[in-house]
Design brief:
It is a single chain. The chain is an alpha+beta fold and 95 residues long. Helix content is 32%, strand content 31%. α2 links the parallel β2 and β3 (71-77). The termini are far apart.
């Protein structure tokens, strides 16, 4: 018998776990977390934070997310910027 292949379940569980982790680190800060499939990395965690970029907060998020075998991206969106405006994106690869 083979191993059951459940990528949707894996993404759902990872999404719940990363959402809870990021929420505990960003209390009171508007943010979203998405875990999506990636052809090379398996899965990628996208964290989008609303507000002006904060290097210290980015460092804390990166340090915590580096504890997991998931590639992650942290994106800051200025709430005053019009839709489609350039955003500050920090990307970190973790394999």
């Amino acid at each position: 018998m083979g191993k059951v292949f459940k990528p949707t379940l894996r993404l759902d569980v990872a999404g719940r776990m990363f959402t809870a982790l990021v929420a505990s680190l960003l209390e009171g800060v508007d943010h979203s977390v998405d875990v999506v499939e990636h052809s090379n990395a398996g899965a990628v965690v996208h964290v989008t934070v609303t507000g002006k970029p904060d290097a210290d907060l980015t460092a804390v998020l990166s340090q915590e997310l580096n504890n997991f075998a998931f590639r992650h991206e942290i994106e800051w969106r200025d709430s005053a910027a019009p839709v489609g405006a350039a955003q500050n994106r920090g990307e970190i690869n973790k394999c």
